[in-house]
Amino acid sequence: MQSRILLGGVVLALLGGCSLPASVVPGEPNYNKHSEKVPKELAACILPAWQKEVSHTTQSSISNGYRITAPSIITADEVLDIVKSKDGSQVSLYQGPPWAKSGALREAVRNCI
Questions:
Q1: pTM above threshold 0.90
Q2: What is the C-alpha to C-alpha distance for residues 109 and 29, in angstroms, rounded to an integer?
Q3: What pLDDT score does 97 carry?
Q4: Are 102 and 76 in contact (CB under 8 A)?
Q5: pLDDT, tens digit, 9 for 90 and up, residues 23-47
Q6: 39-53 helix and 103-112 helix, angle to the nearest 10 degrees
Q7: Do 84 and 92 form a contact (C-beta atoms < 8 A)?
Q8: What is the 3-state secondary structure (H, E, C) of 1-64?
């Protein structure tokens, strides 16, 4: 009986690890650029373009800026962090594996920068 409970706990822990938001995935961003625009201006440009591609895209406030998240049902979410820098914004895009990356979302970021 205890081994079943332990096994169930291990399975739940593993599944929980799979459902962590992509923003906690370690590593370098796939795309990292500087913009002279302030975070609010960039977010106002990028969010509607992302929502056009992925309807459930959301925006949240983070320390010194914004996070835009496009959910994925297959792989990790695509996450864009826009943080204030001394002369504009630093934009960091985190995408999943190469076969799952959205070129349209990256292009939207490029067009707004």
A1: no
A2: 13
A3: 76
A4: no
A5: 444 478 999 999 999 999 999 999 9
A6: 150
A7: no
A8: CHHHHHHHHHHHHHHHHHCCCHHHCCCCCCEEEEECCCHHHHHHHHHHHHHHHCCCCEEEEECC
